[in-house]
Structures are given as C-alpha cells and as structure tokens.
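Handoff note, outgoing to incoming analyst
You'll be picking up this chain. Sequence as last confirmed:
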Amino acid sequence: EVPKKDLGSCEIYPQALVHNANGRFVVACGDGEYIIYTAQALRNKSFGSAVDFAWSSEGTGDYAVRDSSSTVKIFKNFKEVHSFKPPFAVENMWGGPFIALQGNEFVLFVDWEGGKIVRRIDVVPKKILWSQSGELLSLICDDSYFVLQCDRDGIADAFANGTADEGEGVDGSFELVHEISEAVGTGQWVGDCFLYTNESGTRLNYCVGGEVITLCHLDRQMYMLGYVARENRVYLMDRNGAIISYKLLESILQY
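Most recent structure output, in case you need it:
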C-alpha cells in the first residue's frame, strides 16, 4: 500500500490526470476546466476552460485545449499562440508529436505549429499511445489495436517544401505495421516494444515485431502505472491502491 500524505486539494473533480513529457508538470482536467500543477509540490502553474487537454511531446509548457465549441487552442510555454476550429465536431483529442482529433468515423492528425493537416486515418480509437521516439504509435480501438509507423522527417520535409496537400495532408506519413486482435486496457511503449495489460487487466503482454508475448497472468484487475527503465521494473496498481511490480529487463524487451 502507498502511504497517504495530504498534499492539498483539487478544486475540480478530475476525469484525467496526465503528466507532461518530462514529468515536471501534471494536469487535472474535468468539469469543463483544467489546472496545471507542478508535479512534486502540486503548486498551481496555469488553468483555464477545456473539455479536452493534450500535452505536446516536446517543450515543457506546450499543450492544446479544446473548448465546448470544438475550438482548439495551442499553447507554447504556457502562452496561447494559435487557435483554429476544425470543420467537424471533435469528440476526443490526444497529444504527442502531433495533435490527434477524433471525428465521428476517423481521427485527424494536425501539427502543433498552426493546425495544418498531417493525415486522416479512418478508424475511431479510444486511446492513442506514442513511442518516445515518435516513430511508432498504437491506435487502441474497441476489440483490437493498430501499430503504425510515422515518417516524421518526411512530414517535416513536405511542410518545409510546400508539397503537403492542404486538405489531405502528407501522403505516406503513416504506415500500418501490424493489426493485433486484442483489446487493450493500459499500455506504454518501451523503445520499439509495446507493453500493455489486456482489457480485463488480468494479463500483462508485450508486442514486438507483430508478435504478442504474455509476460504473466494477474490474479485481479490491474492498471499499468508505467515502466521504469533504470530499475528494469513495470509497476501496476489495482482499484484499492495496492501497487505491485515485476522485474522486466529492458534488454529482453529490446531483443
């Protein structure tokens, strides 16, 4: 059990708690608002109105928010620098190297500079998880997940050379690598390996090269907190706040 220590209270009821890329800040988002705190002392850094919040994979204070009218506002170093309204009703939003906007039957990736279209993919994910390099991502759907490869250099070249299509984005920017017929609960990329629990939280798996290997069976529903490379351990927690860890050598995952 984790010892409880009172660090303060949150003014909203959060539906999401998400750290930024370097772990220095954490956002609580819920009740149509967001509050950014420092991660360790939980001091207020910024706040505002939002129904969705997404961190960029680069920059300490770079993020996007979506308001109730589907307007997306982009912030750099905690200051608003751009806003745009997509020509469709946005149902969900995720961050990473690009902003992902979910429509009714698709997800649209746009860039952080001005919301320029990168590519539309005709699936409806529940969650999008990027690798640290930004070259691989998982689109988590209801009964399966898709592993895609992202050509970030090609996208940057297309925008720099003006060859990106304004309506269609960059051809070849994403390539389907694998489709795995398994529902995912929680997950994280470790290098080029996707580590995850299944939807019921009773199995810990990893996927590399399209092959899924079961690491262990869990005796109750567990949620992955994350993998700590310097300790070679993956940490999981149950609904009662009990944390367990498994030793898992990074060399095995990267084999």
